[in-house]
Amino acid sequence: MNDPASAGALWPTPSLPTPRPCPRLPARNWSCWLASTWTGDEAALLHQIEALADSFTEEGVFEYVRLFSRVIAGLIPSFSAEELEQRYYRIRRPRRFEGDASKVSTVFVLSRVTLGADIAVTSLALRAVLARFPASRVVLVGGRKSRELFEGEPRLEWLPLEYARRAPLEQRLAASLRLKEQLDAPGSLVIDPDSRLTQLGLLPVCQEEHYYFFESRSWGGAGAESISSLTADWLRQTFGVGDLQPWIAPRGRISQPWAGISVSFGVGENLAKRVPDPFEEQLLRGLGESGLPLLIDTGPGGEEAERVRQALRRAKLSPAQARTFEGSFAQFALWVAASRLYVGYDSAGQHAAAALGVPTVTIFAGFPSERFLARWQPSGPGPKVTIRVDPPADPLVTAARTLEAAYRLLSATEQA
Known about the structure:
Radius of gyration: 22 Å
Low-confidence stretches: 12-40
Number of strands: 13
Number of domains: 2
Strand content: 5-15%
């Protein structure tokens, strides 16, 4: 590697596999199979892929690479499944940045696409890069909602790339391929925190010597650390920057004084994370008895907003006791920052609240593995309680446990 901006040194990493031949797919019309509509076959495939990622195991990583490299090669003839797989085994090897930071003109940090992951993972990468490369342009690559989380950071620039998680696979791959035209430039680095924008590192977006990839799904092995803690460990080893915590910097301020309880029933389109009725109405009724005003996020609208309205009606709370919030997630985060307490399911809200130091109660249901539960614990300076929900949990019991934790945190903050 002759480029001083991208010089790096490998360090040992356990159980790197020997690249093995990847068999060619049997003759099949993949473009037809992965058609431009959301077909059952495609949905089944992507469900399997999500399950491999959510296992947080090295075996799951290897199976994902084997499976999805074949899918990509079947859809994009210019790619070879064998070459994609072999490249992946190279780039997953961690290496230290030992180049001259002053020679780096631009550092691109790829969004994780989902807001919770952008807070728990991407925000740490941004903070490390801002510290390690004080004279470089730092560019977040991702969608508008991700940008809004960090809009108050004056050094941070934005390269728009909207990525629809539920769009047909061919469209998502096309979005990933467009990245290379913008990121592959001399003097630039790309930090990939296991982003969907590169299909979890499988699609090349720049020269390998300019590319730093954090394989979050296997880092930490069988340990119980949170994904934020593991990200901070990788960044310390890679760029020599320590003391990292999740953060957000939305622009603006709230329109009035506020010291209430913020609530979100968002589940990121995963209804398995939701506790069945009458949990939500019981929770709102119990929180309303605190005497503090409630602000309940309605999310992107649709089903989630209707659930919130129904729960409020059944809880029989007055407008003085509770009101809904309709707006962007970044705007909601401004209200969360001023709150005495945040309560919600495992979703972006818990990570925002924890990053802001707000006392947080997370109701954690529908987790596919113990390691998933451990990895997605919120990280931040404030007190946090996780209510673990194992099926078949009684919704009323879960509501009582959640309220007990909420009142305990409120009491602790009053005494502090």
